[in-house]
Amino acid sequence: MSPIESIGPRIPIHSPEFAADPHGYYRLMRRDYGPLVPVEMWPGVPATLVIGYRTAVRILNDDDHFPADPSAWQRTAPGDIPIMPMIEARPNAIRTSGERHARYRAALTDALDGIDLNSLRAMVERSAIPIINTFCETGNAELLSQYVQPLVFSVFCQVLGCPPDIGQRVAQASAAMFDGVNTETVNAIMGQALLDLTALKRDYPDDDVVTRLVQHPARLNDEEMVHQLVLLFAAGVEPPLNLISNTLLLMLTDTRFGDSLHMPTRTALHERLATDPPMANYCITYPRQPILIEDVWLPANQPVIISMAACNTDPAMNTGEFLDNGWNLAFSTGPHACPAHARPYGLLLAQEVIDQLLDTLPELRLAVAKKALVWRPGPFHRALGALPVVFPPSSPFRF
After folding, report:
1. Which domain holds residue 197?
2. CB contact at 8 A, 244 and 355
3. 395 assigned to some structural domain
4. What is the CATH number of the domain that holds 32?
5. Confidence check: pLDDT of 182 > 80
6. Could you give the CA distance from residue 351 to residue 264 in angstroms, rounded to a whole number?
7. What is the pLDDT of residues 237-275, one digit of tens each?
8. pTM for the full model?
């Protein structure tokens, strides 16, 4: 039985080197450390990374010993680290435990349950064609910035009931939050935009997610509303964006998805969720007291990060069967798992965004060698920096 610090040197999961080859690091971690790995999630900020599937499931289902509230850790953590907006204490469903968590989660779940999945396909098509028409005549595009990001954000804002002017302010802050840029500025821009959105829906309710949150029997105040919306935008934009771009990369570079086999987009999405989930390392908890896990002592009030990517590919669990496998941790598990109605929304959105693009531009191909692509560094996401493609130029499409 050893303290986590004595297992070996801490591995920086925030570095460009880690981002370039995370699975290489996971293999070395598994060989040299076992299911629990001492890491740095930011320079000088220690954490424990869980890479064993069964260990992760045990932790994620033990809210009593592994609460998600970072308040105690935050009192001793450096307050100016750029990733703080991603991990700091907030009165919302992902950063609380117990009765507070139950109240916030009920409001969030009920608000999301009202999403009409039947209208999503038409919503994507109406938004996708005008975006594709901005670059279809050029024969080349950078898909992340020119297609995936604006489309995902547009559709999500429609679902939430967020008007474009407020949405643009949120988009600016959201991008900065995931890339770890200027904590104080990110929180200020995001907070004011979401406060404005809350006020708008209190005065002008509609059939949308934000209105259902505002009107929920939980009676969320303005501050609580802002923090639920921070969570919604963080979960509803960046992860789908990464899932879509990572899946497109798989489909453009893996011969199994070529014209001769016609393997469906859904198959590629499920494979990516298992092997390269959009949030690769997250679901952070903070043990209430020192606790012995897998013959290793974890310290109290220090971050324990679940590596969904490493756990999903744990040889003890991964069979190579990814479609509807039932054990995938991409959506987490336990009391803080992604709400049930949000999962089909995310998968259907990703499938429609990809299919709309490939149906419209069927001869799309990668513009550079796969190894030339750059992955954005950061401790949590699995995200390409860009996805350049080429295709035969086409006239604008009707819609």
Report:
1. 2-390
2. no
3. no
4. 1.10.630.10
5. no
6. 9
7. 999 999 999 999 999 999 888 764 567 899 999 999 999
8. 0.93
